[in-house]
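Sync notes, pocket subgroup
Present: LS, DG
LS reminded everyone that the earlier model was apo-only. Rerun requested with magnesium ion included. Inputs:
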Amino acid sequence: MNQPLSTITELESIHTDREPKSGAQLLLESIEAQGVDTVFGYPGGAIMPVYDVLPRTGLRHILCRHEQGCGMAAIGYARATGRTGTAFATSGPGATNFVTAIADAFLDSVPVVFVTGQVPTDLMGTDAFQEVDIFGITLPIVKHSYIARDPADLPGMVEEAYFIAAEGRPGPVLIDLPKDVANAVTTDRHKWRPYPKIKPATVRSSHISGAESMIRAARKPLFYIGGGIGQGDGVQEFRDLVERTGIPVVSTLKGLGSLPNDHPHYLGMLGMHGLKAANYAVQECDLLIVAGARFDDRATGKLDTFAPDARVIHVDVDRAEINKLRKADLYLDGSLKKNLAALTPGRADCGDWRELCHARRTQYEWDYQSAQDAVAPGIYAPKLLYDLSRKVPESAIITCDVGQHQMWVAQHCYFDDPRDHITSGGLGTMGFGLPAALGAKIGASHRTVITVSGDGSFMMNIQELATLFRYDVPVKIVLLDNSALGMVRQWQEVFFDKNFSEVNLDDNPDFARVAQAFQIEGFSIRTRDEVEAGIDRLLAAEGPILMHVKIDPNENVWPLVPPGRSNADMMER
Amino acid sequence: MTQLQRDRTFTSSGVSGTLKIVLHDVSGTLIRALGTIERRGYDYRDVHCTQRVDGDFDLLVHIEDVGGPRNLDTLCRQLERLYNVVSAEKVGRRKRAERA
Ligand SMILES: Cc1ncc(C[n+]2csc(CCOP(=O)(O)OP(=O)(O)O)c2C)c(N)n1
Ligand SMILES: [Mg+2]
């Protein structure tokens, strides 16, 4: 699944070929040597030498219609495939258009190598045309970054960049390439100083046995899992551990799919829009086994009321996450996959607790029919999403945007693999869904890829409809149109005394016709009796298609934990 | 003031100390370390940086937190996560003082 990583000794490899080559050539050859076959990019002045060489390589270039689209497509590609994504942009505005995507990849730990053109070295620092210090701008949001100063550095630099992006906790790496360096021809290949810090992850056996005793001693143990399970390639190890121990599980937004929704030990998503069974379990557990999660405030609510009676075992590849927000009684750092496989505490002695959790799960199960009956007569989005994700013949990849519809996807769609749920969790980036779906479908062409968007978010990268058409990428778009920035509207309703300010979008365009203008099939549905046929049409389409769904502007996401409050304080309709 | 705004009152925790950080000589090496210190909620008061014979840099920096729940061990791990940082550790004892 993961592309083979370079090993440390490979990083030391000296590139032996001595033909005269330009920086642009060396860059692209080195990228290809990393096993990359697809690049999402947008050309411009400073990166023209690279685009000049590009047609002579084996790389497939996807021209998106905005650099933010390129960056997010590369993220979608990386998240769907487990491989490192690659994106190109020019200097100045091209580079600044990357910034949101870089931040998104940083906060969601996605391996992407971003390459930006830069003005020639002698003009750097002179406020030259299209010069911005993208290296400086992105320092807080990259895992690592480079300014290439010598073409002979590029083979080693590129190799290291891909290694760093994917190693440990993945993340974005930036290579800023001045135009003169891209043009300069060299016969040299510099030896790149190998990165000295990376040690093979070992499992600390004393910590493992300590964790096993804590699990054996616990009467109300609970797994709290996050995106690290999928990203650390630990899904199978985690599932085996759940079977071995019989311990109930709650998940963050990014952990969804690590256990299938219908797994008997799964209690659902925790946190601000979590399920009651999940949030109550966290409040009452006596041992919290945190795996690949980081106590994000959207998951924990008011931190000092989170799992107040629990001891904590924290399993994470990133040592900096341990004790950052909640002190761990014991931690397992290094490879999450190996640590989970090494844990063999036997079956947990927690029969009563398991039963209580299961009973709650049944008690608080969604009842779509009565929920739908209780709301306004139009289309009820949660039920539509539930029906949609169960109608997909084989499981689909679902990307989404940010807002109420994003939470409905998390609450109501079926996932049995964390790679199938591609959402902007850390940054919460509106405009993410469409380009991420494009990238996901290009990377995983055999899969059904659906994006669920909102009428606000969709307009932020709507230009990528042109990319779907250009490359005939059959992404299925579900546009939930509540004529509002719904999530903000909901907060204004609940926390700001219904003082609605700048959230009304009732002058939206006719989205089905917009799709048609991009030569994409588009249609609208407005009533409940149109839902089934609409879903069938969406799923049957061979090319890209947009289903525009009019929904009630006043519908809200429930339950809701007010910010800064305990997860026990869930508000309901 | 709404309930939301009331819940966001801010308190400083008064963590201070001196860190010794060893840095590789890569683009932006000093700024990466100092920027991380600032972004993670600390001010730096005193910065000494010298290059060693092996080309790496020794950075000694005295820092004070600017509020919120802060922990110097976490900061050291966050610094060590940077690819230009060889090591980061506290030197001397950490003082916990109430700030005026
Ligand atoms: C780029 C960006 N700008 C602003 C926000 C703040 N924000 C979060 S949700 C939201 C409303 C989203 O509206 P829509 O896409 O229609 O989704 P809905 O909540 O209506 O389902 C806004 C403005 C954001 N997350 N991202
Ligand atoms: Mg909306």
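DG: The longest helix of chain A spans residues 67-81.
LS: Residues A 403, 454-456, 482, 484-486 surround magnesium ion (ligand 2) (CB under 6 Å).
Action: DG to write up.
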